[in-house]
């Protein structure tokens, strides 16, 4: 019993110290106030609403959200539908506005949609 208590006390004292800034450092403040720094986060299913504009990581417009299909988001580019896993999306805030983007470049998404059997919208 004494060994268990001693082990518990040793573990409690050995908690790691997190290496996070408290914001008191002038260099940290300068970095976070830099206009080129963006906050990036994962998205939720509820955010992927019909008509939401989607960009690629380079800032090029990909299309708009058409609908959800399981864990995939169906994005319409205007000429075809592109199926993208929800895990590929992220959101970022720039100049006070939220943007939603996919990690995959637009050209790769379009190439995947043309080889995956997805028909152009005009043929549906």
Structural class designation: alpha+beta
Largest sheet: 7 strands, mixed
Mean pLDDT: 78
Strand content: 25-35%
Distance between the termini: 72 Å
Number of strands: 7
Q: Point out poorly predicted stretches.
A: 119-124
Q: Helix count?
A: 3
State the helicity in percent bands: 10-25%
Global outline: elongated
Tell me the radius of gyration. Answer: 22 Å
Spatial order of the strands forming the largest sheet: 1-6-7-2-3-4-5
Features of the shown structure:
seven-stranded mixed beta sheet; elongated; single chain; 124 residues; alpha+beta; disordered C terminus; 3 helices
Characterise the protein shown here:
This protein has 124 residues and is α+β, with helices and mostly antiparallel strands. 23% of the residues lie in helices and 31% in strands. It is built from 3 helices and 7 strands, in the order H-H-E-E-E-E-E-E-E-H. A 7-stranded mixed sheet has the order 1-6-7-2-3-4-5.
């Amino acid at each position: 019993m004494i060994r268990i208590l001693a082990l518990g006390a040793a573990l409690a004292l050995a908690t790691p110290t997190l290496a996070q800034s408290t914001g008191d450092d002038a260099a940290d403040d300068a970095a976070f106030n830099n206009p080129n720094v963006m906050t990036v986060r994962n998205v939720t299913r509820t955010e992927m609403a019909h008509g939401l504009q989607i960009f690629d990581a380079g800032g090029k417009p990909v299309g708009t959200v058409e609908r959800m299909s399981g864990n995939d988001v169906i994005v319409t580019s205007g000429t075809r539908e592109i199926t993208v896993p929800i895990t590929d999306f992220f959101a970022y805030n720039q100049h006070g506005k939220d943007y939603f983007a996919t990690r995959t470049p637009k050209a790769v998404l379009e190439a995947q949609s043309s080889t995956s059997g997805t028909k152009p919208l005009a043929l549906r």
